[in-house]
Amino acid sequence: MTATELATLSGTSNAQPLDGQANNIPTPDIIAAYENGDKRKDASIGYIELESAPWEEEIYPYIKKYVRPHSLHNNHGMNWPIYRYSEVLLFLAEALNEQGKDGEAAEYLTMVRDRAGLGPYEGDLGEAIFRERRVELAFENKRWFDLVRTGRAIEVMTAFGERVKADPYAYYYPKGREPRPHAFNDVRLYYPLPADESALTPHF
Predict the structure, then answer these.
(1) Which helix (H) or strand (E) holds 46?
(2) 3-state secondary structure 57-122
């Protein structure tokens, strides 16, 4: 991303070029997860044309939720969300649903959906709460922990990897480029122990 392209997002007076390494790009999966009419989609995801990028489409989605005009490069002063009121509501909905109190749980879920401009949820209440967390808390580093605590992490990430490998171009790979052969082959719930730490005891 050139400095000029970056400036169109941030408005910085001294924007710097970026190579794209370690930048998060909204996947087609999260974009498709939003229901029609969901106000959070436009608030969370934007699109920009990057002529300097290697992907032929050149129109990339970006995480709009954290883009704010600021005067100096990387000095934006935004607070990172830890817990928001909507997450408290979804936690309450989930806890009540687990207790079989579906009526009360649905009230809290509805509060979140009303704010997003959506109507009543459809299908299983527990799954509806899980889906709602995905879009309400998108890009706030909650998804992995939701997958782990609900026992879905390996299944979901393995399936995601299969989609990426089946159609790399849809996931912003340049034509002719593919994921590394070992990508997504060893999805784990926990980081391995550092070798130096494991060497301190014979019990690992």
Answers:
(1) strand 45-49
(2) CCEEEEEHHHCCCCCECCECCCCCCCCCHHHHHHHHHHHHHHCCCHHHHHHHHHHHHHHCCCCCCC
For the chain, which domains are there?
3-66 (no CATH), 85-149 (1.25.40.900), 153-190 (no CATH)
Radius of gyration of the chain (CA): 20
* pLDDT at 127 (0 to 100): 98
Distance CA 44, CA 90 (A): 19
pLDDT tens digits, residue range 177-203? 888 888 888 888 988 788 888 888 777
The answer to whether 52 and 58 have CB atoms below 8 angstroms apart is: no
Q: What is the per-residue pLDDT across 45-96, written as a single tens digit (0 to 9) for each? A: 999 888 777 788 888 898 888 877 665 666 666 778 889 999 999 999 999 9
